[in-house]
Amino acid sequence: RYSCPMDPTPTPAAAVSTAGAGSLAQGFDLAAMLLRPDDLSADAETTAEGFLDSPAGIVVYQRAIRPVGQFMEVGASVLVEVTQTITLQASPLEAQAPIRILEAMDLAVFKEIVGRSLLQSQGGDGGEAALDNLTVGRIDASTIGDSSALFSMTLETVVTDFEFIMIFFSTGRISFQFVATGTSGEVVINDMVSLAGKIAERVNANS
Question: Are 100 and 147 in contact (CB under 8 A)?
Answer without folding.
Answer: yes
